[in-house]
Amino acid sequence: MSGFFSPFITKPASVSQIMLNVLLALVPGIILYVWFFGPAILVTLTLASITALATESLMLKLRNRPIAPFLKDNSALLTAWLLALSIPPLAPWWLVVVGTGFAISISKHLYGGLGSNPFNPAMVGYAVLIISFPAHMTHWLTPAGLAEIPLSFSDQLNYIFHSLLPGDIKIDAVTMATPLDTLKTQLHMNGQINAILNMPIYGYLAGRGSEWVAAGFLLGGIYLFAKNIISWHIPAAFLATLFITAGLFHLLDPARYAAPLFHWFSGAAMLGAFFILTDPVTSPTTPKGRLIFAFGAGLLTYLIRVYGGFPDGVAFATLLMNICVPLIDAWTQPAVFGKKEKS
Predict the structure, then answer these.
(1) 80 in any annotated domain
(2) Which of 33, 38, 94, 148 is the most exposed place for a label (fewest CB within 10 A)?
């Protein structure tokens, strides 16, 4: 009967268990991704995973560290998945390998490995790819039902590994700009929000198909919160800041600025809120610090989306706020017990 009385002492979850739960939380979004855009994303995820594990093993060997324990912590796999979900599913195989290899070797192990890296490795890999290979980072698949020439799985494989499409089909015929990029381009051409959002690529709240993928990541984020893997501070502050900022601009000029829910369910907002910004290594350690961190990330995400040169701002907002984490931690650390605070 002693098991029914306090104290209830539980064994803290290991790093591998936490990372595995985060990977599982990504599954609903991945399933919806496959449903609306085809299975090419599974190839990208597989390539990124193999590259991440191979690079992790090589770097650990070069650093004379044990390989098996670090491979089993699932951190390399999580970096691989987050990067794969941030780049186009038809990205050529070498692009996935370069981005993932850079994320693991440079932005993770160059700083000392897991726990020592100041920047989110997946977002560093993404930033390198979009700056170095911008043309390849625009080949986003058209959602099911809108493509003029649907690609089979074998066609997608052939393009990923050989850059070949059947017949005389051009890549532009089977891909499109993202909903965020399309919105920005049309607004620069003096389009009106209502007319733009009536285009076939848009759905109920944001891009057709991609809004459901974002909803899948939202569901996964709720799972992480329910499992006490993440706290509410960063997702709530990030999404609230993005919502309020977008709402104010929309109220000022609804013909030029999209409604808040569009920004919530477009791009990497949900992925960033629950899976990227919440990285415990590269985010602040205090509750107040997490709120400040997420507020800055939400504001920067919106400003980059609306005024920046890139269609989405989550990756660069994350990296910019990663720089601020040591300062945020220094500002928000509570006073040591028994020590008088400076007035």
Answers:
(1) yes
(2) 148
**Do residues 156 and 181 both lie within one domain?**
no
Asked whether residue 252 falls in the same domain as residue 264, the answer is: yes
Contacts of 272 by beta carbon, 8 Å cutoff, 6+ apart: 238, 297, 301, 314, 317, 318
pLDDT value of position 153: 83
Question: Which residue range is the domain that position 275 belongs to?
Answer: 177-329
**Is residue 105 domain-shared with residue 227, that is, in the same domain?**
no
Both 97 and 201 in one domain: the answer is no
Q: Where residue 6 falls among pLDDT bands split at 50, 70, 90? A: very low
Task: For 206-262, write each residue's pLDDT tens digit.
Answer: 989 999 999 999 999 999 999 999 999 999 999 999 999 999 999 999 989 999 999
Domain match, 290 and 262 both: yes
Q: Are 184 and 98 found together in one domain?
A: no
Measured between alpha carbons, how far is residue 93 from residues 53, 182, 187, 266 in Å?
Answer: 16, 26, 33, 26
